[in-house]
Write a structure and sequence with these properties.
Helix 2 packs parallel to helix 4. It is built from 9 helices and 7 strands, in the order E-H-E-H-E-H-H-E-H-E-H-E-H-H-H-E. By secondary structure, the chain is an alpha/beta fold. The strands form 2 sheets. It has a 4-stranded parallel sheet. The chain has a 3-stranded mixed sheet with strand order 5-6-7. The protein is globular. The relative contact order is 0.12.
């Protein structure tokens, strides 16, 4: 039986569409299907999450402003139905999602600040600078929320976290 991940998404938000396509391609490599539940405003998030219950094995959300604003409804629905909930950002994991591969916004801001120094102080042309992703990407687990989703956090999972003191929430 194939596995399915449900995504609540505002398809009017370009970054959410790009991230969902990336997720869809990555999941497909593992034989996992991405099922979309579209929303156009925050008040639709709960209904969209509930519409996926019984059709999917887990929930996922991107950095989608409308969905993140209504994330409490996703957390409640996921917990009530023991459906693991994965997100694209650390803040949502801290709030109650199970896991992400992400970064601390402070670290990301620091990295961008270093780029600004290269431009303003060292005279680098921004057009000549390479496009980068945050340096400190890590698996972030909410071990406290895991039980709510019926997930047992194993030692093997914890070993995947590079900075367990900061990125395992207990």
């Amino acid at each position: 039986m194939s596995k399915k991940v449900g995504i609540i998404i505002n398809e009017g938000e370009a970054n959410a569409v790009v991230m969902s396509k990336t997720a869809e391609e990555a999941l497909k490599e593992y034989g996992i299907e991405l099922i979309k539940a579209p929303v156009t405003n925050t008040s639709e998030v709960k209904q969209a999450a509930e519409s996926l219950v019984g059709k999917v094995d887990a929930f996922y959300i991107t950095l989608d402003n409308i969905v993140v604003s209504g994330v409490d409804a996703v957390i409640q629905t996921a917990k009530a139905n023991k459906l693991p909930f994965f997100s694209s950002d650390r803040d949502t994991v801290e709030k109650g999602a199970f896991a992400t591969v992400g970064f601390k916004y402070f670290d990301h801001g620091y990295q961008v600040g270093q780029m600004a120094v290269d431009v303003l102080k060292n005279g680098k042309n921004p057009a000549d600078m390479k496009i980068t992703i945050p340096d400190k990407l890590d698996l972030i687990l909410n071990a406290k929320a895991a039980a709510d989703y019926g997930i047992e956090v194993t030692d093997a999972m914890k070993q995947e976290v590079k900075d367990p003191d900061n990125n395992i929430i207990e």
